[in-house]
Amino acid sequence: MKHNVILILLDGLSYSVAQHAMGHLLAYRNAGRAALYKLECELPSLSRPLYECILTGVAPIDSGIVHNQVSRLSSQRSVFHYATDAGLTTAAAAYHWVSELYNRSPFIAARDRHTDDAELPIQHGHFYYVDHYPDSHLFDDAEHLRTAHAPHFLFVHPMNIDDAGHKHGLDTPQYRNSARSADIILAEYLQRWLDAGYQVLVTADHGMNNDRSHNGVLPEEREVPLFVLGDAFSLDPEARPKQSEICGTVCALLGVPHDKPVCREVLK
């Protein structure tokens, strides 16, 4: 069965904070309507390399996107490519690096910030380019894309948790409260999206450390959450999904041909 999918990437959210700060998401888990898994992100634990991993299933050392300053189009096939090749509609409300990876590079704000082009992998997009762009605005951008274009695949990517971590560090009220704020904003939309038939995945690229950075192998840098919600998920607590399996799992939900690894255990 084919499903529409929303993939939410809460940039910089460490599992250690997600497991206590995301009250709305955890309410779904506690009610037996969601599952929470602990993933270990690929290395290096940096943003652009891990956007590529999540959206293509390819580890940074194989994709060549090995640090944040690699500014070029991806050489890999992403969820967006598989979806559009199958005739589906794609959309993203995301940081501009996502546009640079899959649509056009370099990002030119006047041209690329608001995208509507059926020939591009991300056909409809609202892309921002400052890390403090409010999460509230970003989720509104995502909902506009959903209601205006009814995408089969929607990627939602706010940045304020990561921004707070870089300014204040992991073990700070500012970082934890930024996570809580994202959860509260998401609460406005989550049930609406589920009622509209979307399968929803909520994850992070990497975590954060007390040095106000991330790149290495500390658990707080590498361990990230994956919440799954929707009637296509098994909610099997024994499933052990990998970050590199998110792309293929989303493609399996969409029902599109692909050649990526899938975590079958999380699906019914």
Descriptive key words:
single chain; 268 residues; alpha/beta; Alkaline Phosphatase, subunit A; 8-stranded mixed beta sheet; 13 helices; 39% helix
Distance between the termini: 11 Å
In order across it, which strands form the biggest sheet? 2-8-7-1-6-3-5-4
Architecture per CATH nomenclature, i.e. the level-2 architecture = 3-Layer(aba) Sandwich
Oligomer: single chain
In CATH, the topology is named: Alkaline Phosphatase, subunit A
Number of strands: 8
Give the percentage of residues in beta strands: 15-25%
Shape designation: globular
Percentage of residues assigned to helices: 25-40%
Spans of at least 5 consecutive residues whose pLDDT stays below 50 are none
Structural class: alpha/beta
CATH superfamily: Alkaline Phosphatase, subunit A
Number of helices: 13
Summed over residues and divided by their number, the pLDDT gives a mean of 98
Number of domains: 1
Order of SSEs, N→C? EHHEHHHEHHEEHEHHHEHEH
Rg is: 17 Å
Q: Determine and state the CATH class.
A: Alpha Beta
Q: Biggest β-sheet, characterized? A: 8 strands, mixed
Describe the structure.
The protein has 268 residues and is an alpha/beta fold. The protein has one domain: Alkaline Phosphatase, subunit A (3-Layer(aba) Sandwich), CATH 3.40.720. It is 39% helix and 16% strand. It has 13 helices and 8 strands. The protein has an 8-stranded mixed β-sheet, with helices on both faces. Helix 9 packs antiparallel against helix 10. The longest helix has 15 residues. The model has no long low-confidence stretch (mean pLDDT 98). This is Nucleotide pyrophosphatase. InterPro entries: Alkaline_phosphatase_core_sf, Phosphodiest/P_Trfase.
